[in-house]
């Protein structure tokens, strides 16, 4: 194959297929912890550990998006992007994904104030999530936005999670799992915009490679969080210093 062929950009269809293949191979729906959770195989303490650690990720998503917006000079892009922050933070007094996540925390028997304090977050969870925020803050805008395209694959896992939680856990009801229900309508609008923006601007092979690498990085951030949970709370459990202990933060 000639150098020109190796460096030529993929067609739009091939580039999108490349991005989607990353999800097919690397998205965290395939992680053993999620398979255990969705099949009803998690103990209530393992569910609680997941809720506590995932809360840290939830709180950093609007911080990540604010960091992205702070670098955007195009007001049209900022107007579109700020809805992501509103989806997670909600209004002054109500709504938002973070508040909905705390309803889930209360439903599994955790004190929401304890969860919101961020005590007990696994060190590896902090490391992975903070790395994602730094990436979006510091990387060029194209890969920074491309890293959010894991949302392409999110509706499937949310549907599986909703069905699995309702089928297998007493705490699951429309109130406690409302976070996932809302994401079924919030995520598609975000990813439709993000995917078009990335595809319109990834015009060189280098651009496409950078976008694909950013998406791979994000899948690794998500996978690393579940690796940390599985290592700490699934037999043989090995909770690291600072990690949540099952007797802590209960209602």
Automatic annotation (TrEMBL):
Among the GO molecular function terms of this UniProt record, one is:
pyrroloquinoline-quinone synthase activity
Keyword Oxidoreductase (UniProt): yes
Its Gene Ontology biological processes? pyrroloquinoline quinone biosynthetic process
According to its UniProt record, the EC number is: 1.3.3.11
* Keyword line: Oxidoreductase, PQQ biosynthesis
Task: List, alphabetically, the SUPFAM superfamilies matched.
Answer: Heme oxygenase-like
Q: Which superkingdom, per the lineage?
A: Bacteria
Q: List the InterPro entries hit by this protein, alphabetically.
A: Haem_Oase-like_multi-hlx (IPR016084), PqqC (IPR011845), PqqC-like (IPR039068), Thiaminase-2/PQQC (IPR004305)
Q: In which pathway does it act?
A: Cofactor biosynthesis; pyrroloquinoline quinone biosynthesis
Q: Name one Pfam family in it.
A: TENA_THI-4
Q: Which residues form the Thiaminase-2/PQQC domain?
A: 17-227
Q: Does the keyword Oxidoreductase apply?
A: yes
Q: Reaction(s) catalyzed by this protein?
A: 6-(2-amino-2-carboxyethyl)-7,8-dioxo-1,2,3,4,7,8-hexahydroquinoline-2,4-dicarboxylate + 3 O2 = pyrroloquinoline quinone + 2 H2O2 + 2 H2O + H(+)
If you read the UniProt record, what top EC class would you report for this enzyme, in one word? oxidoreductase
To which protein family does this belong?
Belongs to the PqqC family.
What this protein is reported to do is described as: Ring cyclization and eight-electron oxidation of 3a-(2-amino-2-carboxyethyl)-4,5-dioxo-4,5,6,7,8,9-hexahydroquinoline-7,9-dicarboxylic-acid to PQQ.
HAMAP family tied to this protein? PQQ_syn_PqqC
Identify this protein by name: Pyrroloquinoline-quinone synthase
**What would be the name of the gene that encodes this protein?**
pqqC
